[in-house]
Amino acid sequence: LLLDELGEMKLSLQSKLLRALEERVVRRIGGQEEIPVDVTVIATTNRDLSAAVEKGEFRMDLYYRLNAFSLHVPPLRERREDIPVLANHFLASFVKEYNKSIEGFSAEAEELMMAYIWPGNVRELKNVVRGMVVLQETRVIMREHLPLEVSGPAIRSETGWQDRFVLPEAGISLDEFEKDLILQALERAEHNKTKAAKLLKISYDSFRYQLKKFGLE
User: Which pTM was predicted?
Assistant: First the structure.
């Protein structure tokens, strides 16, 4: 049983979910009979649930009941090599669904998709590919077929439009660039990791992953 966006669940529902997990029974809405269930639960969230527990926004007992095993999946912008793979997977699926003859993406279109920040992660990528398949009749998806926020000279973030970073002709170490951003965020947040993560628009778990990656813990 997949529980998507668990962090958005209301506290009143969290108590009911905890009871169902502990007692392995559920009751239909309006019903009186308790129905036994035997399921494996997988829960997903993009929130820092440990921080939500501290704020009283998520039940501690439910958090530890579900957190028997956790898997951190970095946001799409931190695993850009996955973007072409996912985009082509979605393309093949939607081409079949909408009976189109699109064969793939141009090299430039793939490069632009890999450069985009994807604030909506995989769900946003999937919807963008779906939109292009629905609207286009071409054989290959080109730059001009991409949405403006992906193909344009700017990157959209949660706070609005920002100038796209211009890659120096001599190139740059991506790891060093990311490490420098993390150090700047820590300095600006006075080494408060939660605040630093918010400055970078990533979850606390993602920020800790980056700290460990660069040996900054």
Answer: 0.58
